[in-house]
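ok so I'm stuck.
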Amino acid sequence: MAYLNFAEPTAASAPVAPRHDPVPPKASLSALEWQVVALAQRDSLASLRTPGRIAVALAALFGGRTDTRLADPRLEALRRVSVHAWYHGFAIPESEIEGFHAAGFTPDHLELVLTSISRGRSARRRRA
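replied:
not stuck anymore, here's the structure
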């Protein structure tokens, strides 16, 4: 019969902490950011261009908005990507994606926004 002395720990019986690879947090957007995505549905592709002198003059004469850009650069980058996504789905210009990432968003944020807009586009087509 064998005898094991459990009073003295050995190297083989030393407790080993389980290895946990850090799991990155899931991408999420704030309520304000989701509002920007929803409002971008109503913006036209023309809202992405800088208004010219004639457009500014006509807006001054007849009233109306010439500049729909948001004051916060982060939210503006989100709006621009969202407008493209509402009109063209996943076909977003590379320059807009670079601006989106430069504003502090991750590729997971982009995937989250595009997936959400894609669902909204398909639901809109089903209703029409």
